Amino acid sequence: DARRRLGPGGVDPIGALPAEARMFVSSLNGQPPRDRLIAIESWVREKGHYDLENGKMAGVKDELPPAELFKVMTARIEEVRRNHPELQAALQGKMFSGVCADFAKLTAGMLRESGIVAGVAEGFRSNGTDPVITTAQFHAVAIAQWPAANGQTRLIPVDGTPGGIDQSQQE
């Protein structure tokens, strides 16, 4: 399933990126990989809005190819703006609305566009005290292949998931 969504190779495009994302990645040409990675992670967080009403969109986004998912994320931010005029100031400059899995795909796509081998990792994290794992413990991040000190490579998480608008949403 991941091969279908992300392409067979770690640097193959996962789908057409939004024009703004492509332009941003192009602006990073010539920068060292570490600087590109940090800039992409920061850009996705800055331009993203975590969609607390994602349940409305889950059926729409399921199984969409990445290029279509990015279009839905762009359309969704406009819908959030229309439905929540009280958030206009907080949504200033936001271009995408989604959840961690959506932002992981956008981040991985931008990393690949910049020449960094990347993919997506999804899973559940235990809270350490309760043996029952729920969907509230699900998280997805982009992963980047990175040189390790021993001459091998390692995978590092790159989390473009934006925080919430206020402290209660960030928790």
Supply database-style keywords.
single chain, 171 residues, alpha+beta, 3-stranded antiparallel sheet, two-stranded parallel sheet, disordered N terminus, disordered C terminus
Describe the structure.
There is one protein chain. The chain is α+β, with helices and mostly antiparallel strands. 40% of the residues lie in helices and 17% in strands. A 3-stranded antiparallel β-sheet has the order 3-4-5. α3 packs antiparallel against α6. The radius of gyration is 16 Å and the shape is globular. The chain starts with a helix and ends with a helix.
Strand content range: 15-25%
For the residues shown, what is the average pLDDT? 85
What is the β-strand count? 5
What count of helical segments does DSSP give?
Answer: 7
Provide a concise account of the structure shown.
Helices cover 40% and strands 17% of the residues.
Secondary structure: elements and pairs:
Layout: H1 2-6, H2 19-27, H3 33-47, E1 48-50, H4 58-61, H5 66-83, E2 96-98, H6 100-113, E3 118-124, E4 138-147, E5 153-158, H7 167-170
Parallel strand pairs: 1-2
Antiparallel strand pairs: 3-4, 4-5
Helix pairs in contact: 3-6
